[in-house]
Amino acid sequence: MLQLAWALFVLILLTGTCAVLASGGKIHAAMLPLPLLSGAALVLYGFGVAGALRLGAGLVFLLWAAVWVVGLVKLRPAGFAKACRETLTTPGIAFFLGGAAFLWVLFFALQPMFTQWDEFTAWGLAPKMVVERAAFYVADPVNLKASFTYPATSLVTFLFQPFGAWAEWACLAALDTLALACVAAATALHRQRWYSGVLVFAAGVLLPYFFRDPTPGAYATQYVNAMADLPMAMLFGGTLCLYLGTQRRRGVFWLTALPLALLTLTKDICFAYGLIAAFVIALDWLMRAEGTRRDRLVSALLHGGGLAVVVVAAFLSWSRYTAAVTPTVDTAASVGSAGLSYGAVLTGGIKQLLGIGRDEKFAQIIAAMGDAFFTRRVCLLGGGAAAVLVITLVAAAAWLAAEKGAPRRSILVMHLAFAACFAALYAFHLILYYYNFSDVEGLALKDYDRYLTPYYQAWMLTMLCRLAHQARGKLGRGALGAAAAAVMVVFCWRGVPAAGFWTAADSLYTLRTDVETRAEAMNTVLDWKDRVLVLSQGDDATRWYYYRYELTAQVVNGFGGFYGRLGETEDRWDSDFMNLVESENWTLYDYKAVCVPDTLVAYMAEKDCDYLLIDRADDYLQREFSPLFEGGLTADMPATLYHFEGEDAEVPFTVAAVAESEVQ
After folding, report:
1. Which residue from 514, 552, 442 is spatially nearest to 661, judged by alpha carbons?
2. Three-state DSSP state, 10
3. pLDDT recorded at residue 345
4. To bridge 79 with a disulfide, which of 75, 308, 444, 602 should be the other Cys (CB 3.0-4.6 Å)?
5. Residue pair 405/288 in contact by the 8 Å Cβ criterion
6. What is the mean pLDDT of each run of 10 residues along the chain (664 residues)?
7. DSSP letters of 637-648?
8. CB contact at 8 A, 314 and 263
9. What is the number of other CB atoms lying within 10 angstroms of the CB of residue 13?
């Protein structure tokens, strides 16, 4: 309940801050939630680097409260109340506040949980640790397991959960609040054109569903998702929409730098997204600026270059920070198992694209990527070609509705710039499939739709925003209404029948809640400094990753291969989870580690483990390993946490905690 009450308080505080800042009439109220939230996250970033996240959160809320005080003093209570009324009747703000409050209350009632694999390996684990520890995972020794993720999603989550009380549903609602703020930036239109704002907001909110490949009956995770895909897409599109709303006014323009910096800190590929945004903005500035050609070029270079500097600074700050706090960890950017630098990858990839030294695998991936653009579904209407066609139709409508001259040229150039950058991004992913994936995964174009749909989504949101800005006459208003209606009709036709986050997902949580219950019993004994090896016989890694997420301790990686004789480690390899098998049953498990009692004890000592958690046992453990454990082992035993007494102990493993469960 505390998370919900605090979130609603933050929304109210944010809305009042928007009202005061917009009261002068120089800034449209709908533009403000995005830079305010982004700026707050960046303040947290700075304090997080200094190791004082909660102090940073306190400063953010004090600054927002100070804006309230200034507004009450300057505008008087009556003027402040009038400013709030005007703000709340602005479509973008009204829908942002109403939508965010609705999602917070809905998620509080439904209590959605993480369901996707990557949420437990990084994207859900990282914000959980930041909230619970009030420190960046890379600077906290126990949190290094989440060190490769970027901090933006964790910072936004922490803003809404600064007290250390973690809730998955609140993390999901926080990221959705940021997404709604991005859509609100696209509605920064004159008050008399409120209907255009309503249409853009409605279509923008549905875009994550429009650009998807739904599996009938599957649980739709677009807005129930802790991964970076939704924030990345929304921040990319929202930054460009915010720029369009600034009308290139000098002071207001630089608000664009705030979400652009946060975008860069969202995911590794967002460095490219940030530079693309700066490039597109520079071209648009060149098309619409006044003065001589030289003056326009200089102005475009100054503004676009300034934003590019922000992107580079944000990117370098995180890489330098991670390198500084983890000096024993290889933090250099590399690709694939060969550890090639991005420069080597790009050089080699471009050569193969040009046909220089092209091998069979690269040729096959080129063919697969070319075919995928037409056949792999990335939206409710079909493949990438269909998505680009729809976006082009919206851009064409905006072009027709715009005045002749610079407005039309800027729309055309922006759309073509998006297309050119998409082609470059497409080629970059082709190269990554060659270098960064196994042969099977690369030829199958693993996660193809997930990698590309954020770009389509941002492109579409930007073109809808451009259409809304040009929709002054009947033709423009009709085109905007048709575009928004098409998105909504296609969503109702093909999106709703598949599934939504409003559908029951209890069956998805069966294993989650089982592991959570067991982990709660173990956590009464464990502390963050403890090191735990987890065994769950027959597991496919799912339960292992759940424990890694749930336990308040460091879960130690296992090994694969053969370790059947003491001191002979050349036939084993580092893994994450493991199932123990005997050598004659090597082929029974996809994930196996041949082990005997002596080598298990030796491995525990080698990895400096404090505890061994046996989640599920089997006949092999019962038959061969029972003498090592206090009370012995049985194949159907409950989940049990054992304390490791050391290699020389008569009984190396003593019972520390037992968790009963009905799920096996």
Report:
1. 514
2. helix
3. 74
4. 75
5. no
6. 90 92 83 96 94 93 93 85 86 92 93 87 88 79 64 95 91 96 91 82 93 75 90 96 86 92 94 96 88 86 94 93 70 51 75 82 90 92 94 94 88 95 93 84 88 95 93 82 90 69 68 91 92 90 89 89 84 85 58 83 93 93 92 92 92 91 54
7. PPEEEEEE--TT
8. no
9. 17
Contacts 24+ apart (CB under 8 A), 117-123: 117/545, 118/227, 119/225, 119/226, 119/227, 120/545, 120/546, 120/548, 120/549, 121/545, 121/548, 122/146, 122/148, 122/149, 123/149, 123/153, 123/226, 123/227, 123/228
At residue 162, φ and ψ (nearest 5 deg) are: -85, 0
Provide the token pair at 328. Answer: 């024993």
CA–CA dist 612, 615 (Å, integer) = 9
Q: 187 near 469, Cβ under 8 Å?
A: no
- Contact present, 168 and 124 (Cβ < 8 Å): yes
Nearest to 278 by CA among 417, 153, 410, 429: 417
Q: Residue 32: CB partners within 8 Å, gap ≥ 6? A: 17, 18, 21, 22
List of long-range contacts for 524-530, beta carbons under 8 Å, 24+ apart: 524/657, 525/611, 525/641, 525/656, 525/657, 526/551, 526/552, 526/553, 526/611, 526/641, 527/552, 527/553, 528/133, 528/142, 528/552, 528/553, 528/554, 529/142, 529/553, 529/554, 530/554, 530/610, 530/611
Label residue 360 exposed, middle or buried (CB < 10 Å: 0-12, 13-18, 19+). exposed
Locate 209 and state its tokens.
């569903």
Q: Which residues is 379 bridged to in the sheet?
A: 382
Tokens of 110: 């439904």
Query: Within 13 Å, how many C-alpha atoms sit on residue 126's CB side?
Result: 27
547, 613 contact by CB (below 8 A): yes
Q: What is the pLDDT of residue 589?
A: 46
Element (H, E) at 152: helix 152-160
Any residues with CB less than 8 A from the CB of 344 and at least 6 apart, and which? none
Q: CB neighbours of 47 closer than 8 A, spacing ≥ 6?
A: 53, 55, 56, 57, 59
Q: Which two tokens stand for residue 178?
A: 């940021």
CB 160 within 8 A of CB 6: yes
Which one-letter DSSP state was computed for residue 340?
B
Q: For 479-524, give the DSSP string.
A: HHHHHHHHHHHHIIIIITTT--TTS--GGGGHHHHHHHHHHHHHHT
Strand pairing report for 559-563 and 572-574 = antiparallel
The structure's pTM equals: 0.90
What is the Cα–Cα distance from 506 to 557, expressed in whole angstroms? 30
Q: Which pLDDT score, from 0 to 100, does residue 236 have?
A: 97
Q: How far is CA 616 from CA 513, 530, 532, 577, 609, in A?
A: 16, 21, 15, 13, 19
Place of tokens 């054109």: 193
